[in-house]
Amino acid sequence: MLKTVLGITGAITLGVISVAILLQEYPKQLACEVIQNGVWAPNGAVCITESCYETGTCRVHTFPAASCGDVRIGDRVSRVVLHLGEPMHSEENRLYWHWDKTSPSVGVEALFKDDYLISLDCKAFPFTNQ
């Protein structure tokens, strides 16, 4: 009986702590996405904005193709890199991303003209190709 009560009490305490953390982080995430037009990185509890492109701090994303739907033809290269993360490599006016963080294969290819996206090939998520 005592173990059950302690188990329930522990679960309730953990739940209350989890809700408190979410309530603390959500306003920061909302401000990041709405006011700063950025992307919230929950693993570091930081807001990443387009300036990450110039500073090289956009981070490598675990699954870049999952964000292909957030990218539009006409977006600046800084906006594309914000959403897809640091590319694995580039050639002239093309940027390439892996399928996922551990894959050696190209999963996303973006073509730019004058720093603006003109073509996006998202092999991993072909229904988002533009």
Compact description:
By secondary structure, this protein is of the alpha+beta class.
Description:
By secondary structure, the protein is an alpha+beta fold. It folds into 2 domains: 2-41, no CATH class; 50-128, Beta-lactamase Inhibitory Protein, Chain:B, domain 1 (2-Layer Sandwich). It is 35% helix and 22% strand. It has 3 helices and 6 strands; from the N terminus they run αββααββββ. The chain has helices at residues 2-35, 52-55, 77-84; strands at 39-41, 46-48, 89-91, 94-98, 106-113, 116-122. Strands 3-4-5-6 form a 4-stranded antiparallel β-sheet, covered by helices on one side. A two-stranded antiparallel ribbon has the order 1-2. Strand 1 and strand 2 form a beta hairpin. The longest helix is centred in the N-terminal third of the chain and has 34 residues, at 2-35. It is globular and about 65 Å long. Mean pLDDT is 82; it is low at 16-23.
Compile the SSE list and pairings.
Layout (H helix, E strand, L loop, with lengths): L1 H34 L3 E3 L4 E3 L3 H4 L21 H8 L4 E3 L2 E5 L7 E8 L2 E7 L8
Antiparallel strand pairs: 1-2, 3-4, 4-5, 5-6
